Amino acid sequence: MKLRKAKIKDVAEIQKVINFFANRGEMLPRALNELYENLRDFFVIEDKGKVVACGALHIDWEDLAEVKGFAVDKNYQKLGLGSKILTACLKEAKQLGIKKVFALTYKPEFFSKHGFAVIDKNELPHKIWNECIKCPKFPNCDEICLVYMPGGKK
Question: What is the count of structural domains for the chain?
Fold first, then answer.
């Protein structure tokens, strides 16, 4: 299995992996146009030419980024693939000089085991809510917000 940055040819497979869990209410769905627009944010893991896991680091501001779109094909669960992608995203955030990385998730335990701490969503700047306005759950978001600060505490 190979970890790499996503390519155009991966978009349909990324959407399939994400929307499998979105259809179960475990994460938010992603439209194809959104995936194409944010393709450079994504890492994937492929196995025999098939995308089996994905996740993205999306820069929101000079010192703030979001990790999102994390999904691992149901047949590849419990192999540490999500952790490998999150580690790649956090390494990239550090290389870019980003001071704070956050996640909005229904699976806070995954992020907590990687050093993220739960915070109130209201602690995030209003800048990040531009995407939330498009969400069918807005303004009644029930995702948990967590933050990671490379080299420091919350």
Answer: 1
